[in-house]
């Protein structure tokens, strides 16, 4: 999603703004721009594509101003062209925006009727005109922003720079994050604390409906109503999280290889390994024993983690789970009982649809437990209980280590709830804990299959379509494997419950279709073996991910087998995620795709 940076500095700020925007690259973007005051007058540079293109423009035509705003744009309204890139400006101000102005058409029609001409396809441009119009009518910049904000509908964060105002930036937020960084005689604005980490660790987060007048030596917080308010400054840990690719070619490669360590770290946070017990770092709601069901919401990969978790909650805690993608859940008429528990799963903690579900659940009197990777996120601030995944910053747009850490947390939660509800006895808990403790080592073992997968990927790269099959927890993993391949290589892929094969997708099977079967040694493996035979009988090309000997046992010939180490069945989904990720990664790398920032994708999806 879009990234916002603003700096009130002592010397030229353009290089610092570009540097901070680079730390927001992980959010995904397709154009970038910057505006500064040059001798008090607004000046802009914008470029389509990556930040490098903006830097080339700045090399040709430098900006030297000591105040400025910058933006990386992930296109929502209008193509990712230079003309649509932010900042949007008129003779009074420049503005950058993250999110969507839902009522932009209505506002644009009104402004057009007043004689305003529009130059871009974006929703953001109405904000520039609306505030500019108020300044033209004689209002001061702060009054102009104050008059415009109540008219904007949607979820957004905004930063304004004004012509002739060398010591003022205004930031505003409503449903999208914005942080103020406090320096010594310098001040900053940013979409997150990570962007500002090299400048300061003293951060104030704006809350929904806040706006701030930021000057070099002061900051004033107001509500949309105009009321003056106080907001706390906090110390951010983001500096400790600054990352590089290490020896890896891509962030995604580094993040896949970090999994044994970060999954181990996450498990250690939730388990007493010596005692063979789950030990949560927070208390579960007191009524957990009386609940008959849970609600689980998430998007994308986090949703697939939740789907796997559903099997565990049902099995270990005897809790029925109502799970849906957040974008559907928020508009369904789901009866939610006060006192119930909703679990939200999100890497970023900023995903607009998941956040909306969290708020919806709380409005219905539910407690919300969020499984989050970003501890300073909006969801973290709005949840009753935060269950952290200790994956560290995930920079690759494709989620890998956050996914497997989410699985680790879901597994521990399901067991803890089983114990709290009196349906998981200590002996079974100890068995499960010993299976979980083995997971990081099994993931390290799975990573050793990388070379074989790299060779296989060359073949897969020629495919037009790929089918993924699995049963039990391997079914959501098949969905996740297909998503990874789609988002990274742009090859069409589908995940199916293997038992559904004969209800339709079997029609697709021919010699050209690779079928990736995820088949750990679990109680349903014989059923999966029958489905493999159905594929083989129709000439399908099977790639089996299973324990050594699984192909012979199933009596099928495979195009390739990725031989996984022997393991307990309950949490096999976590180590089996590794080959699914590696397949997608190497196929995309072989095809020359940008695996860290695939086209059209954003890391943090702060619009619906
Ligand atoms: O930050 P979140 O976990 O809430 O993000 C949810 C999805 O947008 C995310 O998992 C997305 O599907 C990834 N690109 C998957 O790799």
The multimeric state of the shown protein is single chain
What is the beta-strand fraction?
15-25%
CATH superfamily of the largest domain: Aminohydrolase, N-terminal nucleophile (Ntn) domain
Question: Main beta sheet, described?
Answer: 8 strands, antiparallel
Rg (C-alpha, Å)? 26 Å
Quantity of strands, as a count: 27
Low-confidence runs of at least 5 consecutive residues: none
Mean pLDDT across all amino acids: 93
Q: Please, how many helices?
A: 19
First-last Cα distance: 11 Å
Number of domains: 3
CATH architecture of the largest domain: 4-Layer Sandwich
- Cofactors, ions and other ligands in the entry: 5-amino-5-deoxy-1-O-phosphono-D-mannitol
Q: What is the CATH class name of the largest domain? A: Alpha Beta
Give a structural overview:
The chain has 608 residues and is of the alpha/beta class. The protein is built from 19 helices and 27 strands. Strand 21 (367-372), helix 12 (378-382) and strand 22 (385-388) form a beta-alpha-beta unit. Helix 9 (300-317) runs antiparallel to helix 16 (474-489). The mean pLDDT is 93. The structure holds 5-amino-5-deoxy-1-O-phosphono-D-mannitol (M6R). 5-amino-5-deoxy-1-O-phosphono-D-mannitol is lined by residues 299-302, 346-348, 351, 354, 397-399, 487, 601, 604-605. 5-amino-5-deoxy-1-O-phosphono-D-mannitol (M6R) binds at residues 299-302, 346-348, 351, 354, 397-399, 487, 601, 604-605.
């Amino acid at each position: 999603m879009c990234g916002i940076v603003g700096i009130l500095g002592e010397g030229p700020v353009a290089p610092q703004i570009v540097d901070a925007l680079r730390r927001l690259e992980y959010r995904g973007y397709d154009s970038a721009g910057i505006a500064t005051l040059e001798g008090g007058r607004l000046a802009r540079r914008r470029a389509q594509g990556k930040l490098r293109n903006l830097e080339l423009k700045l090399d040709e035509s430098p900006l030297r101003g000591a105040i400025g705003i910058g933006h990386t744009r992930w296109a929502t309204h209008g193509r990712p062209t230079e003309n649509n890139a932010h900042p949007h400006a008129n003779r009074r101000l420049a503005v950058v925006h993250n999110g969507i102005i839902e009522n932009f058409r209505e506002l644009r029609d009104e402004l057009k009727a007043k004689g305003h001409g529009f130059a871009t396809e974006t929703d953001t441009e109405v904000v520039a005109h609306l505030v500019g119009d108020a300044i033209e009518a004689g209002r001061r910049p702060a009054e102009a922003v104050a008059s415009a904000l109540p008219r904007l509908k949607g979820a957004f964060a905004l930063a304004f720079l004004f012509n002739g105002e060398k010591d003022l930036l205004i930031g505003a937020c409503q449903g999208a994050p914005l942080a103020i960084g406090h320096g010594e005689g310098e001040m900053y604005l940013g979409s997150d604390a990570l962007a500002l980490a090299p400048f300061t660790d003293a951060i104030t987060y704006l809350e929904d409906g806040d706006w701030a007048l930021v000057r070099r030596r002061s900051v004033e917080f107001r509500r949309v109503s105009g009321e003056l308010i106080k907001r706390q400054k906090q110390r951010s840990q983001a500096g400790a999280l600054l990352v590089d690719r290490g020896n890896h070619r891509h962030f995604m490669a580094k993040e896949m290889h970090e999994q044994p360590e970060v999954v181990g770290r996450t498990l250690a946070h939730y388990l007493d390994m010596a005692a063979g017990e789950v030990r949560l770092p927070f208390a579960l709601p007191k009524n957990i024993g009386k609940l008959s069901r849970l609600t689980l919401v998430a998007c994308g990969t986090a949703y697939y983690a939740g789907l796997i978790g559903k099997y565990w909650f049902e099995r270990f805690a005897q809790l029925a789970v109502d799970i849906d993608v957040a974008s559907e859940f928020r508009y369904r008429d789901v009866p939610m009982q006060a006192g119930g528990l909703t679990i939200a799963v999100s890497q970023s903690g900023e995903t607009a649809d998941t956040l909306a579900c969290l708020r919806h659940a709380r409005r219905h009197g539910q407690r919300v437990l969020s499984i989050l990777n970003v501890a300073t996120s909006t969801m973290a601030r709005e949840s009753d209980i935060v269950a952290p995944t200790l994956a560290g910053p995930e920079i690759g747009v494709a989620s890998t280590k956050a996914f497997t850490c989410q699985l680790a947390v879901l597994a521990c939660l399901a067991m803890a709830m089983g114990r709290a509800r009196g349906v998981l006895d200590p002996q079974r808990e100890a068995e499960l804990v010993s299976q979980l403790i083995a997971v990081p080592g099994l993931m390290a073992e799975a990573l050793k299959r990388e070379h074989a997968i790299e060779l296989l990927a060359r073949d897969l790269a020629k495919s037009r379509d790929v089918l993924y099959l699995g049963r039990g927890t391997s079914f959501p993993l098949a969905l996740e494997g297909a998503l990874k391949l789609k988002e990274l290589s742009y090859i069409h892929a589908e995940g199916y419950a293997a038992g559904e094969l004969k209800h339709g997708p079997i029609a697709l099977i021919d010699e050209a279709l690779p079928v990736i079967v995820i088949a750990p040694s679990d109680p349903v493996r014989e059923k999966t073996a029958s489905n493999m035979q159905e594929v083989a009988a129709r000439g399908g090309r099977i790639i089996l991910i299973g324990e050594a000997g699984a192909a012979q046992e199933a009596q099928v010939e495979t195009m390739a087998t990725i031989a996984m180490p022997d393991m307990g069945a309950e949490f096999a989904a976590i180590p089996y995620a590794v080959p699914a990720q590696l397949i997608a990664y190497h196929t995309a790398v072989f095809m020359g795709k940008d695996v860290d920032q695939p086209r059209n994708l954003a890391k943090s999806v702060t619009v619906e």
